[in-house]
Amino acid sequence: MENSKKNEYVLTMEGISKEFPGVKALDDVNLKIRPNSVHALMGENGAGKSTLMKCLFGLYKKDSGKICLEGEEIEFKNSKEALEKGVSMVHQELNQVLQRTVMDNIWLGRYPKKEIVFVDEEKMYKDTMEIFKRLEIEIDPRSKVNRLSVSQMQMLEIAKAVSYDSKVLILDEPTSSLTENEVEHLFKIIRKLQGSGIGIVYISHKMEEITSICDEITILRDGKWVTTEKVKNLNTDQIINLMVGRDLTNRFPKKTNNPSEIIMEVENLSSKRKKSIE
């Protein structure tokens, strides 16, 4: 009985508090993630979602509370330690070495070696291709990252997380720059990962995504835990009500403004990033 209870959650965060000068960012917050599940973490901007994840990932030191990974209490000192122990995070702001190859970015800092001092590029390529095949990602491992589209960069980050044999994967607003087709591919990857025992924390403000891909939801408001529920037990209006603390009776008010003269105009705008093609 004790063992089954221990394995019910891959990650538990209980009574987590974090205070900055003049601001209590987290106040006795709880989060429990089951293996083989996608768990939505929702709240308005400033609710404490990012702070909670940074406390888990070793970027912030919590003031109080307890964090357990597969039943063992942990407190990571930095993100490297978190990754090595099986906690990965795909940030909304992608931070990659653009002038290096895809496989360099995946294995950076832990290159496979041969003859002690030489990088085993053949093994690195093979291992990268195995991960890409598993996730149905079609990217050349030898391509430079600066040639990838934003969606491909996102897939690269997920592949990197998988390469650590992660027990917990945190996805922070993963669809913010993806097209509809790319979102479907991402969801396909998430469903593949679910069957491997991993627990996924899904941070998003998009209600249709939460109801489509997530099993459970934890809602934070003003740095406090509000509730944890099965997604199927809540509708969109209930979720919004729990997030903001009041009923929103007029979500889409009529527009009463009258457009006037143009005050700003942009022409021939270029971007360093390749545009995704549907």
How is this structure best described in words?
Helix content is 31%, strand content 24%. It is built from nine helices and twelve strands. The protein has helices at 2-6, 49-57, 79-84, 102-107, 121-135, 150-163, 180-194, 207-213, 236-244; strands at 11-20, 23-33, 37-42, 64-69, 72-73, 87-90, 113-114, 118-119, 168-172, 199-203, 216-221, 224-230. The strands form three sheets. Strands 6-9-10-3-11-12 form a six-stranded mixed beta sheet, sandwiched between helices. Strands 2-1-4-5 form a four-stranded antiparallel beta sheet, with helices on one face. The relative contact order is 0.17.
What's the short story on this structure?
With 278 residues, the chain is of the alpha/beta class. The protein is 31% helix and 24% strand. The protein contains nine helices and twelve strands.
